[in-house]
Amino acid sequence: MKIPHLIHRFVDHVIRNKYRYTTLALVLWLGKCGVEQLGEWGAAQLECNTIQMPRETLPGIGPLKIALVTDIHNNPQQLNKAVELLREESPDLIIFGGDLVTAGERFKRTRWAVNALRSFTEIAPTYAILGNHDYEKQEQVERVLQTAGVTLLRNQSVDWITPAGQTLRIVGLGDWNEGDDAPHACLKKHGEEPLPVLLLSHDPESRWNLREYDWDLMLSGHNHGGQIGIPFTDTYISLRSSMPAGAYDFENGKRVFVSRGVGSIWNMRFFCAPEINILIIPEKN
Q1: Mean pLDDT, to the nearest integer, of 212-219?
Q2: Where does residue 133 fall: left (phi above 0), alpha (psi -120 to 50 degrees), or beta otherwise?
Q3: Which domain holds residue 84?
Q4: Phi/psi of residue 48, each to 5°?
Q5: Would you place residue 164 in the very low, low, confident or very high pLDDT band (cuts 50, 70, 90)?
Q6: Residues 131, 261: contact at Cβ < 8 Å?
Q7: Which CATH number is 231's domain given?
Q8: Where is average pLDDT lowest: 14-18, 24-28, 103-107, 142-146?
Q9: Exposed, middle or buried by CB within 10 Å (0-12, 13-18, 19+), for 12?
């Protein structure tokens, strides 16, 4: 007799409180939808942010305007927006910092990527590295970059003449997370490098393995600024790096700049807008 009585009480409780439960479920569902809408809206708000770097960041190269575009993550719309922003800015040099694709997603109809990256090369000389996601579809990504006329640096260096007629050594590393980095193959030890070095490494945490080498400015992405920021503070939440986004001083005068990137994972960002970056190296401070 006790069990039927308990069942009856439970059913009666549910019936009497069904409107309360329905209201709670509706509120939770609306909250979920609101959060998703806010995150998707935030992920679409691509910014172009200009950063004035100290002249000694790349010593002796004269005035220079570098564009950093990274972490596209299979997003044609954002990449096309980046092209338009680059056209407006007319940089001297464009760096693509990796993660053209997202691991686990199909990289289909790659013409969108070829066309956009070819537009990069029409604006300025463009150099690229691979991000950790790119290795899953490495052959496709490398083919796209080559077809677009982008120079891929994978543990390689190239000497590039700046608009002021100075030589800048650009070094691109394979991805540290994938175990593909070989700094000994493309960097010189401390005191052996006569040229200023712009170092491209997808994950800024790789800096700890590069302390014994000569380089001046590292450009990175990977962290997306954590995709979550604290409103009105320019502070970003990242559980995987002490350098989520922005400009940082490192050891022995080295500097690291980390972009929030153009795309995002799960197509959601909160108070952490995607960005391309224009780094200005002035002739004089």
Answers
A1: 98
A2: alpha
A3: 47-281
A4: -115, 110
A5: very high
A6: no
A7: 3.60.21.10
A8: 24-28
A9: exposed
CA 122 to CA 73: how far, in whole Å?
Answer: 22
Fill in the amino acid letter for 245. A
- HEC letters along 26-76: HHHHHHHHHHHHHHHHHHCCCEEEEEECCHHHCCCCCCEEEEEECCCCCCH
Over residues 247-252, the mean pLDDT reads 94
Dihedral of the alpha carbons of 151, 49, 222, 38, in degrees to the nearest 10: -130
The reply to whether 56 and 17 lie within a common domain is no
Instruction: State how beta strands 126-128 and 151-152 pair.
Output: parallel
Answer whether residue 79 shows pLDDT above 70.
yes
DSSP 133: G
The string of DSSP codes covering 186-247 is: T-PBTT---S-EEEE-SSGGGGGGGTTB--SEEEE-SSGGGGBEETTTTEE--SS-S--SEE
Strand 217-220 relative to strand 255-258, pairing = parallel
Domain count, the chain: 2
Rounded-to-integer distance, Cα 43 and Cα 258, Å: 18
**pLDDT 10s digits, 275-285:** 999 999 998 75
Structure tokens at 38: 């806010």
